[in-house]
């Protein structure tokens, strides 16, 4: 069986079908909608392929417009907005079956020396990831065997995820819980040495757990889910070089949830506590109607609107 990390690298290796047009695979998964991190990662690959490669991406801003269909290829159309002396800007439109499902704008910056240097200190009261159980093992220990479809997804998961904050399993444990969550992550295998692959892989991972912070005061993260969730938009700022196949801490919080939407902010650190990436995402949260079957909150990415 192919290593899930190798499958992720293959997923990010787009086919170029014209000068500014690329095509990406969309695996046939059990999800009803394409995982948004996949679309964002592939779109960033398309943007990066149209640059000279000497300027790493420093920010991206994206909107999820329609749900993608699993198993149907996605075409990425790149607009070369600007090629300046220090910055390069690209706009990417993702199209599936003739409809736009996603838009992304990415900015690339030539590295510079000097300037202001500071960083707020991170939360440091987390166990080392090597001392924590893998998320799938922790779920099985508390909830028993997962449904076969979710077991298959866990085996295909390209990232090792371990909760740094204590998981809460009952409504009683949720009382007084802050809207915060933290996880350790790293790719389950080597991703090679192309910096763009690592950036796009981390973009993929950044969409997997961020909205957990919105749900934490309301319901356990694992078990029967009471809300239909969908990501609306996603923004990232890349501060330092990193490898996505080395441990990074994803510290997440939700400053507000109101009117059916919840905002989440994430900060990604390396093992030394250096801030690597900042992330902001807004999600849509709608309660399932009373009496309607509710799906399990399992090891599946957040679907898109």
UniProtKB/TrEMBL annotation:
<dbReference type="InterPro" id="IPR025652">
    <property type="entry name" value="TesB_C"/>
</dbReference>
<dbReference type="Pfam" id="PF13622">
    <property type="entry name" value="4HBT_3"/>
</dbReference>
<feature type="domain" description="Acyl-CoA thioesterase-like N-terminal HotDog">
    <location>
        <begin position="32"/>
        <end position="109"/>
    </location>
</feature>
<dbReference type="InterPro" id="IPR029069">
    <property type="entry name" value="HotDog_dom_sf"/>
</dbReference>
<dbReference type="InterPro" id="IPR042171">
    <property type="entry name" value="Acyl-CoA_hotdog"/>
</dbReference>
<protein>
    <submittedName>
        <fullName>Acyl-CoA thioesterase II</fullName>
    </submittedName>
</protein>
<keyword id="KW-0378">Hydrolase</keyword>
<dbReference type="Pfam" id="PF02551">
    <property type="entry name" value="Acyl_CoA_thio"/>
</dbReference>
<dbReference type="InterPro" id="IPR003703">
    <property type="entry name" value="Acyl_CoA_thio"/>
</dbReference>
<feature type="domain" description="Acyl-CoA thioesterase 2 C-terminal">
    <location>
        <begin position="156"/>
        <end position="284"/>
    </location>
</feature>
<dbReference type="InterPro" id="IPR049449">
    <property type="entry name" value="TesB_ACOT8-like_N"/>
</dbReference>
<comment type="similarity">
    <text>Belongs to the C/M/P thioester hydrolase family.</text>
</comment>
């Amino acid at each position: 069986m192919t290593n899930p990390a190798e499958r992720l690298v293959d997923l990010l290796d787009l086919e170029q079908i014209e000068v500014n047009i690329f095509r990406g695979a969309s695996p046939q998964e059990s999800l009803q909608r394409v995982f948004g991190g996949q679309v964002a990662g592939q779109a960033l690959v398309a943007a990066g392929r149209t640059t000279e490669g000497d300027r790493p991406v420093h920010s991206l801003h994206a909107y999820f417009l329609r749900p993608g269909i699993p198993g149907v290829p996605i075409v990425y159309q790149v607009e070369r907005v600007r090629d300046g002396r220090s910055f390069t800007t690209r706009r990417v439109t993702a199209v599936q079956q003739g409809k736009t499902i996603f838009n992304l704008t990415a900015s690339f910056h030539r590295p510079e020396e000097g300037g202001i240097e500071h960083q707020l200190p991170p939360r440091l009261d987390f166990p080392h990831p090597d001392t924590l159980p893998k998320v799938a093992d922790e779920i099985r220990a508390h909830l028993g065997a997962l449904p076969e479809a979710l077991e298959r997804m866990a085996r295909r998961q390209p990232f090792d995820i371990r909760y740094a904050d204590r998981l809460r399993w009952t409504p009683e444990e949720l009382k007084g819980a802050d809207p915060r969550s933290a996880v350790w992550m790293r790719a389950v295998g080597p991703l090679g040495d192309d910096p763009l692959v690592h950036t796009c892989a981390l973009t993929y991972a950044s969409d997997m757990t961020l909205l957990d912070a919105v749900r934490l005061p309301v319901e356990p993260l694992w078990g029967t889910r009471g809300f239909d969730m969908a990501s609306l938009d996603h923004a990232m700022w890349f501060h330092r070089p990193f490898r996505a196949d080395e441990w990074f801490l994803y510290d997440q919080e939700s400053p507000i949830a109101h009117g059916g939407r919840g905002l989440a902010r994430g900060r990604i650190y390396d093992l030394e506590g250096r801030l690597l990436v900042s992330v902001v995402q807004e999600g849509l949260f709608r309660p399932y109607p009373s009496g309607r079957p509710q799906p399990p909150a399992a090891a599946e990415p957040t679907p898109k609107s």
